[in-house]
Amino acid sequence: MAKLSPVAKLLRELVTLPSVNPAFLPNDSKRTGEERVANHLIDLASKHGLEVSRQSVLPGRKNLFVRLKPLGKVKRRIILSPHLDVVPAEDKQFKPRLKNGCLHGRGACDTKGSVAAFFHALLELSKQGKRPQQTEILFVGLVDEEHRQSGSRILGERGPKADLAIAGEPTQLQVVTAHKGNLWLCLETLGKAAHGATPHLGKSAIHAMTRVTNILLTEYVDQLKERKHPLLGHPSINVGIIRGGSQTNVVPERCSIEVDRRTIPGETEASVLAEIQILLKKHRLPSTTIVESRGVPCPSLATDPNLPVVRQFLKAAKRRKSHGVDYFTDASPIAMGGTPAIVFGPGNIAQAHSADEWIDLKQLDQATAIVLRFLEEQP
Ligand SMILES: [Zn+2]
Description:
Alpha-Beta Plaits, 379 residues, alpha/beta, single chain
């Protein structure tokens, strides 16, 4: 077996430490929470003389800050912010396996690969004695990305701010400056209940909802296709759940659908609600109620790829241009707080959350080298 690089060894250690988001597995403290991973990183940071602090996010759950101070005064700051939590997995997924140059296990790419790469780059920078003159490097291990992104929301709201934040996600080493936003809507139609034998005495909420659904998935989809973002393409809509009626022999009084609407820059919650209302009114379905059902804002990300610091990262990654992705990330809540944010990391999003999650170790090494190269160039 080929010798593992130090960053691959770190990743292997991190995968053995379960950090399932407690939202998915309540009452299973042996597997849930980010603390095991945070404590491991704290030990390593202390050995390298790096400053550690925490930021409270949720009960028992804290963002981890590991700080490399510059030689002089802090005039600039770069945040490296992968998330520490993972989605649930069987026990065997917490026993990492190596096969054909890939490491298999839960979190391998989403996002313990990024944790290992970013953290190792930081340790290398501190060792080399090449620490920047004016730039503080702040590694932030975020909690709760997989559920409500509470970690990045608190980081965005309460700071610290930075000149650039790099959210870790498996982008296959592409530099991502834009991603779609996410809006969850619940639509409800109300009818009038009646006996199933005399449907003419009632009004079917299901019938009304089939019309609503049909309009959303045909006319509205066509409308969305007329909009286009250069990196993200069209916005989209999916009706994920439909619920209605109570009994076969009763005319349904209520019917509801849950809608997942992926937004592009320029679209807001208010603009989306308004345009759906206009469309339903046009088709004489004004009795439909629409409410936002996710409870947290998830706007799209659109960081200017021409910012000098983003150009500098592109150069370190040897990429000519930046990319857009469909999925939501921690970069958006961080950007909401005023810090320009991009997304970058080793591995492929196709393997994230899968029953056999893995990462190509060559990409892990490359990601580490890219981040280190970028950090070394900071003033
Ligand atoms: Zn994930």
